[in-house]
Design brief:
This protein has 121 residues and is mainly alpha-helical. 78% of the residues lie in helices and 0% in strands. It has one domain. The longest helix is centred in the C-terminal third of the chain and has 36 residues. The protein is elongated, with a radius of gyration of 17 Å. The N and C termini lie close together (8 Å).
């Protein structure tokens, strides 16, 4: 295990802090979600310890399909008639749900970082 992955794990935790503190647009969260999937895939391929792998498998995926603008027709029409307020409230709820997952994800990466440091270094 090289130190590069430990830096990536530390970096993803820092990014998770930034998102949970002040992310207001879906693009930031979608980019973070993709980075999360890349880091998880790397860990699954390169970590050989079954105990650590079990933690990696527990890392949730960020629900980006909710953030990519897939709203129902009725929600879109209601949003148009209410001046967009309905859409904004719905989008804010989606962002908050994604932020909750990012917060959980950060904790999982903190545990994995601790395990990797104590197991491989």
């Amino acid at each position: 295990m090289n130190r590069n992955i430990l830096r990536q794990i530390a970096d993803i935790q820092i990014q998770a802090d930034k998102i949970t503190a002040n992310a207001t647009n879906s693009t930031e969260i979608i980019d973070f979600a993709r980075y999360n999937e890349e880091v998880k895939a790397y860990l699954l391929q390169n970590v050989k310890d079954d105990f650590i792998i079990s933690y990696v498998r527990e890392i949730p995926s960020v629900p980006i399909e909710d953030l990519e603008g897939n709203t129902s027709l009725s929600a879109t029409i209601l949003g148009l008639f209410s001046g967009g307020l309905g859409f904004n409230i719905q989008q804010m709820k989606r962002l908050e749900r994604a932020k909750e997952v990012v917060s959980i994800l950060k904790g999982k990466y903190a545990s994995i970082e601790f395990l990797l440091k104590n197991h491989f270094l």
